[in-house]
């Protein structure tokens, strides 16, 4: 029997701690245990066991916790995650071991009723109906009983008060009903059937499934990728294994869940930040027991304890939402590929606009490439045309150019829906005093405050700081001189309401009250055709299906192009391709109009030509020439502190000992584009290496040589950074 256990604790600690195993406690690796840590008790996971070591003066493990142990695969994933991201191993474990969340609201217990044996004190016709329905003595839900008896719920409540019915606690509803892979479904098109076949292969037995293979499923917008990967999910379920479908959080709409139900007969189990309390725990337990066969979830679902994982699908694999930008800086798409390798199961990356990384991997043969070149049902892709804003100027103080206004008019006249897209929240991105020139800036961050008329406030989009918009300039005291500069979606909504006062307009922006739930509802409204004009930020661009939408108007195609970010071209192309791809997905063909000041810019030109391959070729070539990912590697260090000098000095001290070997260069420290965030000054160092270099080892050695962060100073490590702000 082992006498010493190495316990990894889900806190920012880099190593497991040794504890003595008390006699009679039979532990195995992966077991979840309770251990003393300093003055308190905490939870940890058995990471290693040692038979020979002496447990002499070690503190003993308190006991085992009744919870499914962490599988070998999941422990390997945690080790991998920590090694790759350089996050403390305990922080990586915390991702896989979300402790029961006591702050989350508990599920309301389900209550059933049955006859108590005591006749009602007072009898009415309605009451007799209920008593007759309940006469068999079986337990029923309250509303089920009322429905069966054809009476209102208050009659049932009355009988409970009366004592003729008694209440009993019911078993909680199952977290998910089993999906039926052979549920009757719509037939696939030939192209879809071919693609589905390519995903699944002919493998006659589960052992022949290509182990750990990664497949890029690339299909233009509206090509029907979802139905194709559903076939892979179905095959996985048929083989008795579990499937995970990852989606950007907001894409988890009722519409998607209904589509799943259309294919599998039931809605899938879902995992996202809105799933709380007991339900979360039960879902984890069901997944660990292998009872839940399909989970559709946001990125954190990747760390669920699947017992028998047979497939991972990453939908919209190019989405930046898959990158976690705080705590453990990991990319869920990349970790999905790692988990697939560890579990020996295939991983399907689906997108209409794949990341450059995945495209390159598909071209080099590392990933298998399965393509759907046309839209489902032979529908045409939208026609995309530019509006040159230098020629077709909007009226003064307006943002829609005359051709855009006319196109919206024509669309509405035809009874169709129009979407106006602007990737800017709020009313105006800058507020300026015309009397003294003062610009309103955040007191904690180096950002302009964004006016939100809806909230009647000036708001910082970095830290959330908000102040009331003043009546007079706070600097010079002048009245009526504060001017909003530039548009956000709220300002567009104002303009559109003035132009089309009779139309039903929906504005979709992530900052509106009501959160993700309300947004999901609004998206349903749009999909159902119960609105005429949609005005939205990037969240309307993502994976939604709006069958009534035939016009997409991009109000400022140039926004993302000047950011200086190495991925600016890729991001802009993806976003514009996605948003224009919302048009014409239903019966009627769609078109897109793109307002731009630089129609000849390569990204805009590629978009207009409809030639995505041309864009990919040029961008891949440019990345290769510059040694940028995936042809070289990047990692960022972000040094931050409450005092500017401290952060800068620490960054310089790190740079002095960087000592980069051949094939590695270190840039910086440079003041970050967002130099001040939440009261912390930020400096960035960028490591650029050739492709074959082990950037993690280099970073580890470098940081070990460098000064240790003290006090409020922090050094965040971001391997494969997506954001350069
Ligand atoms: N076999 C089929 N039979 C009937 N309708 C289908 C079939 N396959 C797809 N569709 C319909 O075609 C439309 C587009 O499908 P889907 O949303 O899967 O496309 P997609 O490739 O995921 O697009 P995007 O990348 O733009 O989100 C949907 O309305 C879907 O219901
Ligand atoms: Zn701020």
Automatic annotation (TrEMBL):
Alphabetic keyword roster: ATP-binding, DNA replication, DNA-binding, Helicase, Hydrolase, Isomerase, Metal-binding, Nucleotide-binding, Primosome, Zinc
Cofactor: Zn(2+)
Binding-site list for Zn(2+) 2: 442, 445, 460, 463
PROSITE patterns xref list: HELICASE_ATP_BIND_1 (PS51192)
Note describing how the cofactor binds: Binds 2 zinc ions per subunit.
All copies of domain Helicase ATP-binding, residue ranges: 206-372
Enzyme class: isomerase
Annotated GO MF terms: hydrolase activity
Pfam families: DEAD, PriA_3primeBD, PriA_C, Zn_ribbon_PriA
This enzyme's EC code(s): 5.6.2.4
InterPro entries noted in UniProt: DEAD/DEAH_box_helicase_dom, Helicase_ATP-bd, Helicase_C-like, P-loop_NTPase, PriA, PriA_3primeBD, PriA_3primeBD_sf, PriA_C
Annotated catalysed reactions: Couples ATP hydrolysis with the unwinding of duplex DNA by translocating in the 3'-5' direction; ATP + H2O = ADP + phosphate + H(+)
Annotated positions binding Zn(2+) 1: 433, 436, 473, 476
Top-rank taxon, per record: Bacteria
SUPFAM superfamilies per the UniProt record, alphabetical: P-loop containing nucleoside triphosphate hydrolases
CDD domains, per the entry: DEXHc_priA
Key word Nucleotide-binding present: yes
Assembly information from the UniProt record: Component of the replication restart primosome.
Family: Belongs to the helicase family. PriA subfamily.
Record's function text: Initiates the restart of stalled replication forks, which reloads the replicative helicase on sites other than the origin of replication. Recognizes and binds to abandoned replication forks and remodels them to uncover a helicase loading site. Promotes assembly of the primosome at these replication forks.
UniProt protein name: Replication restart protein PriA
Lineage per the UniProt record: Bacteria, Pseudomonadati, Pseudomonadota, Alphaproteobacteria, Hyphomicrobiales
């Amino acid at each position: 029997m082992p006498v010493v256990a190495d316990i990894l604790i889900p806190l920012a600690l880099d190593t497991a701690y040794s504890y003595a195993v008390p006699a009679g406690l039979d532990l195995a690796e992966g077991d979840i245990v309770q251990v003393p840590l300093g003055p308190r008790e905490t939870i940890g996971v058995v990471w290693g066991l040692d038979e020979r070591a002496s447990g002499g003066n070690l503190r003993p493990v308190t006991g085992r916790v009744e919870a499914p142990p962490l599988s070998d695969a999941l422990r390997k994933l945690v080790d991998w995650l920590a090694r790759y991201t350089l996050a403390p191993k305990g922080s990586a474990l915390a991702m896989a071991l979300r402790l029961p969340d006591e702050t989350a609201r508990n599920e309301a217990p389900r209550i059933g009723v049955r006859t108590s044996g005591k006749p009602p004190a007072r009898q009415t016709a309605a009451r007799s109906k209920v008593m007759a329905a309940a006469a068999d003595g079986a337990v029923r839900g309250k509303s089920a009983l009322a429905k069966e008896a054809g009476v209102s719920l208050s009659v049932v409540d009355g009988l409970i008060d009366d004592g003729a019915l008694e209440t009993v606690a019911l078993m909680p509803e199952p977290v998910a009903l089993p999906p039926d892979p052979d549920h009757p479904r719509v037939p696939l098109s030939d192209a879809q059937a071919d693609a589905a076949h390519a995903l699944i292969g002919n493998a006659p037995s589960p052992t022949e499934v290509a182990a750990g293979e990664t497949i890029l499923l690339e299909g233009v917008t509206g090509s029907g990728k979802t139905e194709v990967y559903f076939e892979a999910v179905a095959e996985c379920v048929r083989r008795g294994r579990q499937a995970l479908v990852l989606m950007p959080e907001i894409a988890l709409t009722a519409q998607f869940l209904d589509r799943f139900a259309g294919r599998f007969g039931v809605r899938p189990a879902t995992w996202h930040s809105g799933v709380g309390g007991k339900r979360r725990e039960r879902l984890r337990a069901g997944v660990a027991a292998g009872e839940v066969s399909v989970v559709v979830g946001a990125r954190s679902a990747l760390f669920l304890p699947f017992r028998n994982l047979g497939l991972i699908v990453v939908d919209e694999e190019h989405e930046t939402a898959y990158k976690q930008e705080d705590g453990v800086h990991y990319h869920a798409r990349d970790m999905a590929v790692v988990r697939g390798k560890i579990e020996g199961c295939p991983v399907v990356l689906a997108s209409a606009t794949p990341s450059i990384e995945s495209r390159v991997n598909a071209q080099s043969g590392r990933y298998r490439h399965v393509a759907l070149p046309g839209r489902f049902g032979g529908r045409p892709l939208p026609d995309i045309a530019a509006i040159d804003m230098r020629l077709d100027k909007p009226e003064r103080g307006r943002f829609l150019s005359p051709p855009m206004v006319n196109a919206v008019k024509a669309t509405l006249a035809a009874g169709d829906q129009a979407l106006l897209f602007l990737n800017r929240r709020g009313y105006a991105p800058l507020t300026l005093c015309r009397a003294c020139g003062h610009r309103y800036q955040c007191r904690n961050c180096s950002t302009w405050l964004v006016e939100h008329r809806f909230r009647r406030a000036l708001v910082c989009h970095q830290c959330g700081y908000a102040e009331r918009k003043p009546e007079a300039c706070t600097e010079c005291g002048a009245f009526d001189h504060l001017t909003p500069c530039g548009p956000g979606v709220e300002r567009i909504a104002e303009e559109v309401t003035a132009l089309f006062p009779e139309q039903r307009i929906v504005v979709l922006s992530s900052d509106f009250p009501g959160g993700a739930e309300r947004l999901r509802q609004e998206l349903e409204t749009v999909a159902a055709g119960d609105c005429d004009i949609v005005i939205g930020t990037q969240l309307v661009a993502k994976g939604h299906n709006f069958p009534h939408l035939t016009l997409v108007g991009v109000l400022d195609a140039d926004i993302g192009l000047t950011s200086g970010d190495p991925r600016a071209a890729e991001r802009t192309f993806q976003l514009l391709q996605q948003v224009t791809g919302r048009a014409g997905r239903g019966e009627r063909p769609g078109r897109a109009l793109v307002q731009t000041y630089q129609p000849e810019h390569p990204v805009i030109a590629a978009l207009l030509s409809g030639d995505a391959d041309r864009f990919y070729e040029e961008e891949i070539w440019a990345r290769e020439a510059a040694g940028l990912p995936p042809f070289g590697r990047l990692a960022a260090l972000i040094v931050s502190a409450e005092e500017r000098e401290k952060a800068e000095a620490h960054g310089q001290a790190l740079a002095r000992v960087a000592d980069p070997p051949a094939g590695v260069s270190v840039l910086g420290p440079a003041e970050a584009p967002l130099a001040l965030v939440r009261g912390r000054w930020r400096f960035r160092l960028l490591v650029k290496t050739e492709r074959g270099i082990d950037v993690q080892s280099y970073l580890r050695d470098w940081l070990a040589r460098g000064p240790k962060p003290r006090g409020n100073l922090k050094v965040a490590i971001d391997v494969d950074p997506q954001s350069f702000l």
